[in-house]
Amino acid sequence: MIPQARPAEIILHGARLVDPAGDDPAGDAVAIGEGRILGVGPHEQLKGLATPETVSLCCEGLSLMPGMIDGHAHLDREGLKSVLPSISGARSIAEIQAILRDVAARTPPGQWIVLSPLGTPPLFLDSWSGLADGRCPDRHDLDAAAPDHPVWIRPAWGYWSNKADLVCVANTAALALAGVGRDTPSPHPLVEIHRAADGLPDGRFSEATRISIVETTLMSAAPGFDVATRTDALARSMDTYARFGTTGVYEGHGVAREVIAAYGALRDRCKPGMRATLVVSPSWSGVDATADMAALIADWTRWAKRGFADDDRLRIEGIYAEIDETGEGLVRARGGCCTGWAGFHLDSGAPRAMVRELLLEAARQRLRVSTIFDDVMGLMEEVNRSQPLAGLNWVRGHVATLDERALGAIQDMGLMLVTHTNRHIAKGGSAHLARLGPDRCNDIVPMRRILDRGIPVALGSDNLPPSLLHPVADLELRRDHGTGEHVAPDQALTRREALALATAGGANLLQRGEELGRLKPGYLADLVGFPGDILTMEAGELRHLEARLALVGGQIVLRQS
Predict the structure, then answer these.
(1) CA 399 to centroid of chain Cα atoms
(2) pLDDT (tens digit, 9 = 90+) per residue, 332-363?
(3) Contact 96, 130 (CB under 8 A)
């Protein structure tokens, strides 16, 4: 490719060049200047762009390709995992007590101690069942280790394990500060306050849900993740995602006010090492059913976008939609603005009638909408009949099963899709097969059908774990990790096709396909280098693969020997 006649700031050379969405360029080098790719080709050809100030990096042994873009990242959550003192290595109550004593010795008396969840990260599948005692610790166990501190073992995020079985534990001092006593009622039928024979709470709470209710109701007195903590965690998250080759994210589940504030604070501190497109998570608490929807949407988006105009790395567009007829989200939101692990507003769901009005008004204002639920997609079809959605690029994430009728509706509405194979193939593929039966197996994450119809689609990790190479492997292998069962192998993609969705597909989701996701002159220099030949290595190797080099806008954000 003929280079642009401008001096290069960086020349990467000696690499295997990979452009999954097109033909791989001839040559071994990429020249970069002013944040964009100046030229791609043989190193000898690009040397003419070098000056004495040009940085020359040898990339021998690396596959150099466009950076991947995660279509459902929950980027902010990753860095929070290392904030709390960890008890994950403990295999007994005595070992938990030993860790707690050590933390208490370093914590001023009377100050809260909040510990990481019970169980083994990153999925916390075992919770307390992994303890040799065969039981969960109670308040007396925690009192014995830290009598001078309020202590709380925080619940896990239930979608890590994908099990509706959350457990958390508070000691006596924490229960007192939280006001939880003999007569305290459960805030919701899904929550159980465990009690001793005398009727007093024993400190244990269990929840038949994946998103905790306890942490924002009964235990709202415990410290949550403040904006400063989230800002520091966000910087660590960006480093982690870059390590797995991700240079951009789309937050299709929506982000809360506090997360937007953290992005703003990080931008004020430094130039973020990641491109992020954020969707606004609405907060329906206190919104009257008769509220003017046009004014409401305008207020939400105006607040979210303030100060972020013309930012090349941080964009806020659109709004998230979810139906909640139970009011469960409103109960969770009682604790105020702290959203815990979620990062989106816990009351982001609204009754069907209000969501329908939201969609209608968003269509009128040509505002982008994102959802992850089938029932909202059904509402979109209703709205489409009176207010055509074609051209608005609305987004349906968490694609699990789609039949031919649904695919036709998606095509008619011009929706963009984001798949989440970590859950719907790797963790839940066999469950989908058992539910649907063999005749409908090809409805499970039907990627071949989606591509054959020309429906735009991107890949999402959902932070489970934070690597898009897991979904890339899932789409090639189509195998349930737990059972080993193949899940609709006719819908498998080639390695190149899957990588194209992780790069150019993600760029299209960001509506930046003309400047991101390709290895071509003029495109933004968001690039990653992986060791080995990423197109031919065994699919299983992808799950352990880490990048050695990552650049965003020509800025090196990761460099490992």
Answers:
(1) 15
(2) 998 777 899 999 999 999 999 999 999 999 99
(3) no
